[in-house]
Write a structure and sequence with these properties.
The complex is a heterodimer of chains A (about 375) and B (about 350).
Chain A (H helix, E strand, L loop, with lengths): L1 H33 L21 E4 L3 E4 L6 H34 L4 H15 L3 H12 L10 E3 L2 E4 L2 E4 L1 E4 L3 H13 L4 H19 L3 E4 L2 E2 L4 E2 L2 E3 L1 H28 L2 H9 L4 H31 L11 H12 L2 H30 L6
Antiparallel strand pairs in A: 1-2, 3-4, 4-5, 5-10, 6-7, 8-9
Helix pairs in contact in A: 2-3, 2-7, 2-9, 2-10, 3-7, 4-7, 5-6, 7-9, 8-9, 9-11, 10-11
Chain B lengths: L1 H22 L3 H8 L2 E5 L2 E2 L3 E3 L6 E2 L1 H14 L5 E5 L5 H6 L5 E2 L7 H6 L2 E10 L1 E6 L13 E5 L3 H13 L5 E5 L2 H10 L4 E5 H9 L7 E3 L7 E8 L3 H20 L6 H4 L5 H6 L6 H4 L6 H9 L2 H9 L30
Parallel strand pairs in B: 1-5, 1-6, 9-10, 9-11
Antiparallel strand pairs in B: 2-3, 3-4, 7-13, 8-11, 8-12
Helix pairs in contact in B: 3-13, 9-13
Classes of the chains: A alpha+beta (about 375), B alpha/beta (about 350).
The complex binds glutathione.
Glutathione binds next to strand 2, helix 6, helix 7, strand 11 and strand 13 of chain B.
GO cellular component, one term (chain A): ATP-binding cassette (ABC) transporter complex
Family (chain A): Belongs to the binding-protein-dependent transport system permease family. HisMQ subfamily.
Main location (chain A): membrane
């Protein structure tokens, strides 16, 4: 019965490791207790007392709103987590897009596009990410015009203080827009009618209740913008850095996947009378995606974990907020356990999402 | 692979079991047996603790106290291994015993003493938090109510500026934090923030190393008390006692007027108080677990408090911080520097 023996051995090893970790934790706890710091998560509900340069948090009864110094440590960590999530999700989306583009460049028939894409991949993959973040932040984004000389374009302000967009609010006429969309949805089989219904809804709504969306352009004051939606240079540096870095790896994943589709598939497609583009789109791409998904998941996880470099460019991501919380509260052990659990959950979430997709595209053998 | 995990588990278990044994010994004995001091310092703060890239040597006011300790224990101020600590990791480094002591421009606060698992040594520098702006930006703090303030993460400064903004009810002021002072300074000089807020002495240091110091102004307001002191792991009073009296020795020496130069004359003194202080009589040194003549060794190596101060913040230094009339003057001249008696 080799199986039973195997299982037993595994269980023993697992037990030993768990025991080791637990006794390490217990030892840390008792040592901290000896120094007058009992292990406890109670500090999470104490007032944080420090500020975050950006970030929303949840407050009971108020919903999501900006973080204030009078909020608790838990709310501070939540704000950090939402900042992390914002960069991670947007980053994954953009990196995939850019990665596809670069992969297309590398496989292109045009030698210039090939050379550019190859150069990009080599340079980006072979320099440290941290260095790239510094370049983005200190050498690119902070070199934008100062706030006094901000570039202004149709209510949009661009300066080293960030990109300020007009805040978009819902106006009364949004009801008309909603009705138009609703009607359009039912008429979706006849695009012209649907479009007509949409326009009619917006028009009626506008006449009856005012514009559907209102733009509130930011006010430019001596020290900074008032109102408006701010994309900070810290956020931008982290996002650009992660996207450009990860896209280089993703491009290689896509390229590898496309090359891994057997030559015979192309030939079969041509034999069926498909042209180059259609052969790629209908025959090769679906198979390439299947190959690409698992390594792609790795790149997504890397991107999500690399958001923890945010502190290097002043972005208050989860790990950065953890640093301050641990420092002010002295609860580094408790806080790091919590933060690790959160990163683990985030990673598992991404894996689960990719796995679900993978199952959908995976080959189903019908016998 | 399985075997690897097994050994790992056992190793971790053993480590946990053996831990308490070395936790109980005083750090004083550990350091003496090791023959070298592991001292946590700042590596990037000119004036206090700075790693000179050319010589590879640490210099600064705080560094002198590491040297004083090594001199007291081993008779050689160079028997120190320096560990650069940034603002965020410094308490953990001491708590975990990674360094024996840290002298790293650190403010004594009740919160840190109570919640961070460290104990503080006597104050070596009385500081206060200030604000630096570019010339013409503002003449007083009041004009900065919509400003963005940059500061270092994990410092008292981070919290003080927030407290200040809250107390003033400034709704549009912002605080942006970076992991070290160099990045704060870079972002500030490039214009990302209107103001750099930190301990005033540190602002002096950063200002002096800026490409055009004359374009930067340190506003006169002081928004907090920042008494800076070394710190050790909590609950090791033998170690803490020894270090405290090494720090006091530098101050007491200044009060007596004992300097590196005139030390040999004082060694011939007949005054009982002086003889006791210098270890020519009595057992003060042994009682503290230190060599009998530890004070002599300290003065020989680094001089008295005033001499240390002048080397780094004196009129000839690029980081000139006047001492007369400030809290850092001796008590006899209206300051707060004062040593309990060596008796
Ligand atoms: N005294 C304050 C401030 C200490 C501190 O870390 N100050 C900054 C000044 S900006 C510093 O030394 N930075 C040097 C670095 O780590 O880059 C405290 O104890 O929290």
């Amino acid at each position: 019965m080799p199986r039973a023996k195997d299982l037993l051995l595994q269980a023993v090893v697992l037990g030993l490791v768990a025991w080791g970790l637990l006794s390490l934790l217990a030892e840390a706890r008792s040592r901290m207790a000896a120094q007058g710091i009992p292990f406890s998560f109670a500090f999470l509900s104490q007032e944080a007392g420090f500020s975050l340069s950006e970030g929303l948090t949840y407050a009971p009864g108020e919903g999501l709103r900006p973080f204030f110094p009078s909020d608790t440590y838990l709310q501070a960590l939540l704000a950090g987590f939402l900042n992390t999530l914002k960069v991670a999700l947007l980053g994954i989306f953009l990196a995939t897009f850019l990665g596809l583009l670069v992969a297309a460049g590398r496989l292109s028939a045009n030698p210039l596009a090939r050379a550019l894409a190859a150069g990009y991949v080599e340079v980006i993959r072979n320099t440290p990410l941290l260095l790239q973040l510094f370049v983005w932040y200190f050498a690119v984004l902070l070199k934008l015009p100062s706030w006094e000389n901000a570039l202004s374009w149709g209510g949009v302000l661009l300066s080293q203080r960030g990109l300020v967009l007009p805040q978009v609010g819902l106006g009364g006429g949004v009801l008309g827009l909603a009705l138009g969309l609703f009607a359009g949805f039912f008429l979706r089989k006849r695009p012209l009618w649907a479009l007509g219904a949409l326009f009619l809804g917006v028009f009626l709504g506008w006449v009856l209740w005012g514009p559907p969306l209102v733009f509130a352009p930011p006010q430019k004051e001596a020290f900074g913008p008032r109102g408006g939606l701010l994309l900070s240079p810290e956020f931008a540096a982290l996002l650009f850095g992660l996207v450009v870095y990860t896209a280089a790896f993703i491009a290689e994943v896509f390229r590898g996947a496309i090359l891994a589709v057997p030559r015979g598939q192309w030939e079969a497609a041509y034999a069926l009378g498909l042209e180059g583009r259609d052969a790629f789109r209908l025959i090769v791409l679906p198979q390439a995606v299947r190959i690409a998904v698992p390594p792609l998941a790795n790149q997504y996880l890397n991107l999500a974990k690399n958001t923890s470099l945010g502190v290097a460019v002043g972005y208050p991501d989860l790990f950065s907020v953890y640093g301050t919380v641990a420092n002010q509260s002295g609860r580094s052990l408790e806080a790091i356990l919590l933060v690790m659990a959160v990163y683990l959950t985030l990673s598992l979430g991404i894996s689960a999402a990719v796995n679900t997709y993978n199952r959908r595209v995976a080959l189903r053998w019908r016998l | 692979m399985k075997l690897g995990k097994l050994t790992l588990g056992i190793a971790i278990g053993l480590l946990a079991a053996l831990g308490p044994a070395w936790a109980q010994q005083s750090r004083l004995d550990v350091v003496k047996n090791r023959g070298r001091l592991v001292c946590g310092v700042n590596a990037v703060l000119p004036g206090f603790g700075f790693l000179d890239q050319k010589t590879g040597k640490y210099t600064g006011f705080d560094v002198e106290f590491c040297r004083a300790v090594a001199a007291a224990l081993f008779g050689d101020p160079d028997k120190v291994d320096y560990v650069p600590l940034d603002a965020r990791v410094r308490f953990q480094a001491v708590q975990n015993g990674e360094v024996d002591v840290a002298f790293r421009n650190t403010t004594v606060t009740a919160n840190r003493d109570g919640a961070l698992g460290v104990d503080f040594l006597p104050v070596t520098f009385y500081d206060g938090q200030g604000v630096m702006v570019k010339k013409g930006r503002a003449n007083s703090l009041r004009e900065l109510q919509d400003a963005t303030f940059c500061t270092t993460q994990g410092t008292t400064n981070e919290k003080n500026i927030t407290d200040y903004i809250r107390a003033q009810r400034w709704r549009n002021a912002k605080v942006l934090t970076f992991e070290d002072g160099a990045k704060v300074m870079n972002a500030f000089l490039q214009g990302r923030c209107d103001a750099f807020t930190a301990d005033k002495s540190q602002l002096v240091g950063y200002r002096a190393t800026a490409p055009r110091p004359e374009e930067l102004v340190i506003l006169k307001e002081t928004i907090s008390k920042e008494p800076l002191a070394g710190f050790v792991r909590e609950n090791d009073s033998r170690w803490r006692d020894a270090l405290s009296w090494i720090v006091y020795a530098t101050i007491q020496a200044e009060e007596y007027g004992i300097t590196q130069k005139n030390l040999d004359q004082f060694l011939k003194s007949e005054v009982p108080e002086i003889r006791r202080f210098l270890g020519l009589e009595g057992t003060l040194g042994q009682d503290l677990g230190l060599p009998r003549d530890f004070v002599v060794r300290v003065i020989r190596a680094v001089g008295n408090y005033g001499e240390i101060y002048d080397r780094f913040f004196g009129a000839k230094s690029p980081f000139y911080i006047p001492r007369t009339g400030t809290l850092n003057a001796l008590q006899r001249f209206g300051g707060l520097m004062y040593s309990p008696p060596f008796r």
